[in-house]
Amino acid sequence: MYKRIPWRSIAVITILLVTISAITIYLIRNPKLFELLKNTSPIVVALIFILYLLFILSLAFINDATLKLCKQPIKASESLLVTMYSSVVNFFGPLQSGPAFRALYFKKLHNVDLKKFTLATFAYYIFYALFSGIFLLASSITWWLLPLFAAGFSLVFIYAKTRPYTLNKIKILNLRFIGYLGIATLVQILIQAVIYYVELNSIISGVGIGQVLAYTGAANFALFVSITPGAIGFRESFLLFSEKLHHISSGNIVVATTLDRAVYVTVLIFLAIIIFATHAQKKFTNLDK
Q1: pTM score
Q2: Do residues 254 and 26 touch, judged by C-beta distance below 8 A?
Q3: Cβ contacts of 166-175, under 8 Å, gap ≥ 24
Q4: Cβ atoms within 10 Å, residue 48
Q5: How many CA atoms lie within 13 A of 236 on its CB side?
Q6: 148-164 pLDDT, tens digit each
Q7: Max Cα–Cα distance, the chain, nearest Å
Q8: Alpha-carbon Rg of the chain, whole angstroms?
Q9: Domain ranges in the chain?
């Protein structure tokens, strides 16, 4: 019987192998960059590790806001556990499978309407793209526009919180929770910016905030086209193509992204240990039954 060739899986594996090989060869041919990576301070590594734990926590708040938009809130502890598990699945599982896992989990265990969940998730991606776009242009726009935008968004949120109401028939656009989702998304991206700031300044001195914001925006847009774990290969490409915006050299991009992925994988392994130590995986592995 004829079997379809898994072209997408082959493409993913090929991209991963090419990217890892290219980075390895680049570091071998540039020993000074390899020395920078090897001599990274343990304090810097520990700080990035802690920041990534805060990053996972911000994802749990985003998860919570998404479910509140669906009129189906869950306990904070469960939201955090699902976020931890889906983060591990999203990186080590096939393709970008984290969102699909969350949709299945909430449908099976909490009867969350998939249409509402999809729309709420789409709202998150809109915020993510909006903030990332502003960050990407941070080095080329007037700096005072950023706090002005943040202040305007805060006023909208305060107004929505004092006068909550719905805007459509399926009751997904509650402005109070939309504001909550937007702020949680902004916090997530700010944490990412701080992580990149620490990584870049551990490699080169004098990296400006505008550069880091533009770097963060470029890195984030890789999410929308990536089919590889952690956007490997795609994030590097976006950062290289946007070099004129953030002015970070290709060599420093390679070192920073290598450091970033090494620490992030360590964080995910740490989360996986917690999940298996508490036997929480049993709750997640029976969803298809």
Answers
A1: 0.78
A2: yes
A3: 170/113, 170/115, 170/116, 170/119, 171/71, 172/69, 172/70, 172/116, 172/119, 172/120, 172/123, 173/69, 174/68, 174/69
A4: 25
A5: 24
A6: 566 566 555 555 555 54
A7: 64
A8: 20
A9: 40-284
